[in-house]
Each structure stands twice: as structure tokens, then as C-alpha cells.
Amino acid sequence: MTKINVCPAILRKLRENSGFSVEELARKLDYK
Questions:
Q1: Number of domains in the chain
Q2: Domain range holding 12?
Q3: Which region, left, alpha or beta, applies to residue 20 given φ > 0 means left and ψ of -120 to 50 means alpha?
């Protein structure tokens, strides 16, 4: 699996569970 394929799914789940922002998580993962 590629990061691009997994990123959206993970971000979506974490966002619903932790209420994290995509930008916040992107910063932590260094994914711009």
C-alpha cells in the first residue's frame, strides 16, 4: 500500500476518533 492511499483513510479515522485536524496531523507526519 502506498502512503497516498493510506493517508486519507487514516487521517479520516483519526479525525473522527481524536478530532484531529488534517493540517495538524500532516505537520506531525511531515506530509505537505
A1: 1
A2: 1-32
A3: beta
